[in-house]
Specification:
Blueprint lengths: L3 E8 L10 E10 L2 E9 L8 H7 L3 H5 L4 H12 L4 E2 L3 H14 L3
Parallel strand pairs: 1-4
Antiparallel strand pairs: 1-2, 2-3
């Protein structure tokens, strides 16, 4: 069985844009169906978390103020994943945010 990266984003909404950004990413790397590595980080994209999203995810504006910049996190996670194929439960949603956030840093 090949190596697979399972990704999950938390975001400020459902469609990526300048006002709707990722707030957290988590990745586990699977080999032979077993977790062999993991990456998780909050990310500060400079956008406000709506009250509804804070209640849904538990991620607050205060938490994001001290989080690393989104650009730094996406650079790190891109290096972490490399060319490993991506898998996600809500793939269309997560792929949109993966592409959008990497596009902002020209990756």
């Amino acid at each position: 069985m090949e190596r697979i990266a399972v990704i999950d984003f938390e975001t400020t909404g459902i469609t990526p844009s300048s006002s709707c950004r990722a707030t957290e990413i988590a990745v586990v790397i699977l080999e032979q169906g077993r977790i062999v590595d993991r990456y998780q980080s909050l990310m500060n994209a400079g956008v406000r978390v709506p009250a509804f999203i804070e209640q849904l995810t538990g991620i607050s504006n205060a938490m994001l103020r001290s989080a690393p910049p989104a650009e730094k996190v996406m650079n790190e996670v891109n290096e972490f994943v490399g060319i490993t194929p991506l898998l996600a439960h809500n793939a269309a949603f997560d792929q949109k945010f993966w592409d959008f956030e990497l596009g902002r840093i020209k990756r």
